[in-house]
Q: What sequence folds into this?
């Protein structure tokens, strides 16, 4: 095992399975099983989840809702996903807690770095919800920020494809897989790994990013140093 503390980034879309909306119980159970296989190795796991399966601020703006309100709706959507993930993790036999940058008293804890680190040290999975708590920032940026704050060794981004390609593999059949890229290549070639703010934060703090397919046991392989997906580093 080469990574002792990780920050896992999950998109909301990754949790809806084939339903097209909301949370798919089978997908939640499968993701929870993967996370448990990693936690059983003694790895400390922080997790940031998106809300795109329920609401995105950008999409809401196109529907006539102002961007700030839309982003607030998206933050609440991440809390819904986090609660679903917590339930799935607990069903899998893990201890998990939700901390939110958006205050929802009586349902989730407020985000506090020191308390999150204590939870991690005690073997609990900490799910960070509510994004950064501010509009106009993506959950990718929230993931990079939380990873740096909890001093994670690596950020793992689970996606629907096998890693990073030179163009969208779901659109272009001739897309070329890239096993390793630098932060600057990801930025200059606009490879779509994460938004610019998130990649820049990772670069400035030399936090490696591993991008892999959410299906299979890729998460476990990534934290134990096996070649899987794409690694982004200096």
A:
């Amino acid at each position: 095992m080469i990574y002792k503390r990780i920050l896992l980034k999950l998109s909301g879309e990754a949790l809806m399975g084939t339903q097209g909306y909301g949370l798919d119980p089978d997908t939640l159970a499968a993701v929870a099983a993967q996370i448990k296989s990693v936690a059983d190795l003694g790895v400390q796991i922080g997790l940031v989840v998106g809300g795109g399966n329920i609401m995105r601020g950008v999409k809401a703006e196109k529907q006539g809702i102002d961007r700030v309100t839309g982003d607030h709706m998206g933050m609440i959507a991440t809390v819904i996903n986090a609660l679903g993930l917590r339930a799935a993790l607990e069903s899998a036999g893990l201890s998990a807690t939700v901390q939110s940058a958006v205050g929802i008293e009586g349902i989730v804890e407020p985000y506090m770095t020191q308390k999150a680190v204590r939870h991690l040290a005690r073997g609990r999975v900490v799910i960070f919800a509510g994004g950064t708590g501010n509009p106009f920032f993506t959950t990718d940026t929230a993931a990079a920020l939380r990873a740096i704050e909890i001093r994670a060794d690596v950020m793992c981004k689970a996606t629907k494809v096998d890693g990073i390609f030179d163009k969208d593999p779901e659109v272009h059949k001739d897309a070329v897989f890239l096993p390793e890229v630098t932060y600057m290549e990801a930025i200059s070639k606009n490879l779509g790994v994460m938004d610019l703010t998130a990649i820049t934060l990772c670069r400035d703090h030399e936090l490696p990013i591993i991008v892999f397919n959410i299906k299979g046991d890729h998460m476990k392989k990534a934290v134990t140093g096996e070649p899987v997906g794409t690694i982004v580093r200096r």
